[in-house]
């Protein structure tokens, strides 16, 4: 019964076979879990008939040990009148029918399935004379209580957030979408972690082509383990080398429920509080949870501000460099003289000055995120003020550059979902503007737009609706329309475009 472990960790159980001898079966699992200090087994006999001998196997810390005692050991020891024949295969089924109190029990003789269940917190029950075993759901590991996600706080709306507990996360969604149309499809990914991944969707709304594409990509993943949703995001991207997000990630059940009602698919990973949603559109980077819980006038104004902020944070540093270094004639004379005076004595070229200040700002922002919150806020504010003022006084940088970088950094916080892409695109445009001035800035913007337009999210155009001209297609793009005006679901995402809950007909209004 030697182990057969290949380089990928597959087929390690193929030489193990369950027999009718209970002690031999126990030895199989003792060998599989060799040197595992948390491995536990308990042999027990029925008080009325000592020939009824069973063994419960579980992992300490993963299983509810009290439940094992109350739902398995005690009933087995105290059971009366069990029909038993040490040579009959149906003995284990007799225990299943007449003895066990547990609600979720399944039969199995597949070693791989049995071992994976034990590791995941289930309890194994074996009986003398049976090659078949019972897998009993008595999971008992600790999980944290659901709290509001730190990165997705809202002024109004639900405060509940996903946790690392897989079944609890699915229940959050089920509680909001109480319909048999809600489907959960399970896939295991990871040759060593065997991580449970769940595809969640509404059957009559989901686009079958998108679902098939996602399922095919997930089943073709070859990796040792999946520990977070971001693994799947990177491994399933249509365009893996883009800095832009083409899959949504959220920790809020209400947001996932809203996406499912539009015909999208949610991907839940066991052990991760983040849920991936696909397909994903560019405009979702500028949408927030509060947009749907506050007055639509205010929500629309806030979204327009975020769109403007995205343009400012990407373009302004490059525009400043292009104007000051190459196109001074485009600056009003008084402003040009003020900038020129402020730059007197600054030793660094303007592009180096800009890149250094942007780097310092990102360092301050990152350090503020990584240290405790009560210290991080003070460090960010004091650090920015002290370093900025000292740098200007020492003529290391000019005051206009501090203003430009400050405005750039603050507006960048409005597009937090695009943090990585914003930093890359901003730096790219700064370099282009430092080489070719305004022409470099324009060429850089054209390249960025062309790249963004070329992207897809699981076969769906990434920039869908940005070029919309129909009213219903623009209902949730640049502003949010009132709910009574939202009559249709996104095309290319759902097979049922008309919202059934609305009494009006779909189409343009």
Could you walk me through the main structural features you see in this protein, from its secondary elements to its overall organization?
The protein is α+β, with helices and mostly antiparallel strands and 509 residues long. It has three domains: 22-136, no CATH class; 150-280, no CATH class; 296-457, no CATH class. Helix content is 42%, strand content 12%. It is built from 15 helices and twelve strands. The strands form three sheets. It has a five-stranded antiparallel beta sheet with strand order 1-2-4-5-3, with helices on both faces. Strands 6-7-9-10-8 form a five-stranded antiparallel beta sheet, with helices on both faces. Strand 6 and strand 7 (195-202) form a beta hairpin. The longest helix is centred in the middle third of the chain and has 30 residues, at 296-325. The radius of gyration is 30 Å and the shape is elongated. The termini are far apart. 30% of the residues are buried.
Q: What kind of sheet is the major sheet?
A: 5 strands, antiparallel
Strand order of the largest sheet: 1-2-4-5-3
Structural class: alpha+beta
Give the helix proportion (percent range): 40-55%
Global shape = elongated
Uncertain residue segments: 1-9, 501-509
What is the beta-strand fraction? 5-15%
Number of structural units classed as domains: 3
SSE succession: HEEHHEHEEHEEHHEHEEHHHHHHHEE
Quote the distance from N terminus to C terminus: 71 Å
The count of DSSP E runs of length 2 or more, i.e. the number of strands, is: 12
Computed CA radius of gyration, to the nearest angstrom: 30 Å
Number of helices: 15
Q: Kindly report the average pLDDT value.
A: 82
């Amino acid at each position: 019964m030697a182990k057969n472990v290949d380089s990928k960790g597959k087929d390690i159980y193929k030489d193990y076979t369950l027999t009718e001898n209970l002690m031999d079966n126990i030895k199989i699992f003792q060998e599989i879990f060799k040197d595992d200090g948390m491995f536990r087994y308990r042999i027990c006999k029925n008080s009325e008939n000592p020939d009824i001998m069973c063994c419960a196997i579980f992992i300490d810390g993963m299983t509810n040990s009290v439940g094992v005692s109350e739902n398995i050991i005690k009933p087995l020891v105290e059971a009366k009148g069990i029909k038993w024949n040490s040579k009959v295969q149906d003995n284990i089924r007799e225990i299943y029918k007449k003895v066990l109190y547990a609600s979720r029990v399944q039969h199995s003789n597949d070693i791989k399935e049995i071992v994976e269940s034990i590791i995941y917190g289930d309890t194994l029950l074996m009986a003398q004379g049976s090659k078949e075993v019972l897998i009993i759901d008595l999971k008992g590991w600790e999980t944290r209580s659901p709290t509001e996600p730190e990165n997705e706080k809202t002024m109004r709306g639900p405060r509940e957030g996903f946790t690392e507990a897989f079944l609890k996360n699915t229940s959050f969604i089920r509680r909001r979408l109480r319909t048999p149309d809600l489907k959960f499809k399970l896939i295991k990914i990871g040759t060593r972690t065997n991580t449970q991944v769940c595809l969640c969707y509404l059957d009559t709304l989901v686009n079958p082509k998108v679902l098939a594409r996602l399922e095919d990509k997930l089943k073709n993943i070859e990796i040792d383990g999946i520990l977070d949703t971001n693994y799947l995001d990177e491994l399933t991207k249509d365009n893996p080398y883009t800095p832009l997000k083409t899959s949504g990630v959220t920790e809020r059940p209400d947001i996932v429920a809203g996406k499912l009602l539009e015909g999208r698919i949610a991907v839940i990973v066991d052990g991760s509080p983040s849920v991936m949603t696909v397909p994903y559109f560019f405009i979702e980077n500028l949408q927030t949870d509060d947009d749907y819980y506050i007055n639509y006038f205010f929500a629309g104004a806030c979204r327009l501000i975020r769109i403007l902020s995205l343009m400012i944070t990407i373009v302004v540093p490059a525009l400043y460099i292009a104007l000051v270094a190459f196109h001074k004639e485009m600056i009003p004379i008084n402003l040009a003289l003020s900038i020129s005076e402020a730059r007197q004595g600054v030793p660094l070229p303007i592009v180096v000055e800009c890149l250094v200040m942007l780097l310092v700002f990102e360092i301050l922002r990152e350090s503020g995120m990584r240290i405790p919150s009560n210290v991080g806020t003070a460090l960010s504010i004091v650090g920015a003020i002290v370093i900025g003022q000292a740098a200007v006084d020492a003529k290391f940088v000019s005051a206009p550059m501090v203003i430009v970088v400050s405005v750039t950094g603050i507006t960048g916080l409005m597009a937090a979902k695009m943090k990585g892409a914003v930093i890359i695109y901003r730096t790219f445009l700064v370099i282009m503007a430092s080489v070719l001035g305004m022409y470099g800035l324009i060429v850089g913007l054209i390249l960025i737009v062309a790249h963004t337009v070329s992207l897809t999210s699981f076969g769906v155009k990434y920039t869908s609706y940005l070029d919309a001209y129909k009213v219903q297609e623009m209902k949730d793009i640049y502003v949010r329309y009132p709910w009574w005006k939202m009559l249709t679901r996104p095309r290319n995402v759902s097979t049922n475009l008309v919202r059934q809950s609305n009494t009006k007909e779909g189409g343009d209004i």
